[in-house]
Amino acid sequence: MKLELENKIAIVTGASRGIGRAIAETLAAEGMRLVLAARSEAQLTELAGSLPTESLVVATDLREPDAAANLVASAYERFGRIDALVNNAGATRRGDFFELSDVDWTDGFALKFFGAMRCCRAAWPHLRASRGAIVNIAGIGGRTGSADFGIGGSVNAAVMNLTKVLADRGVADGVRVNAVNPGSTATDRLNARIASFALASDLSHDDAAHEMAHRFGIARFGQPAEIARVVAFLLSPAAGFSNGSIVDVDGGQTRTL
Asked: pTM of the prediction?
């Protein structure tokens, strides 16, 4: 399918690794020019050098209140327009509810929720002008509560609600806003969990991954590129009637409505 994204401008946050990197690579392969944001300038610069299209590296910490506005201003100054925003930045601490501190909760919301909200607010006038699109990366933990994922689940639920709020506003302003809920995806974070499980269970890495996937009720873990392709579709004119959609990409792990 031709997605008609050539020469459009997208901001991708959390682009330095994992799902964010895969999103950047997929969008660049579709011909988009990119603004790559994350905290690691070295990783972003390496990524930018590997992409087939022009990109701008912005090393920034989106937990800072002014970071989102500065990121958007840099994108507009470089490219003169913004057609798409992918809010992917944000990792939250796992752990027992009674062991998670106020600092842990504040940090979890500061990057993934407030960072995304501020990026949406700052980019909105440009996206309205281009009749552009936003995709927020949330996560299936926002649909199904888990005892060791209280912060992440709460943040993801908030991101999903924000998506619906902005999609409602987007009807009038001509901006489409959708979300993707990745399931268990083979990123560095998941591979670290698999390694810990393998060590504790005296299993090989592959056997541990298979056993963990089985416990989650899925055949295998996802690949970052599989998430990225859904994001590219939602940003494209091919998804022109998708607004306020929340798409679970999880191998069937979510069984609730």
From this structure: 0.96
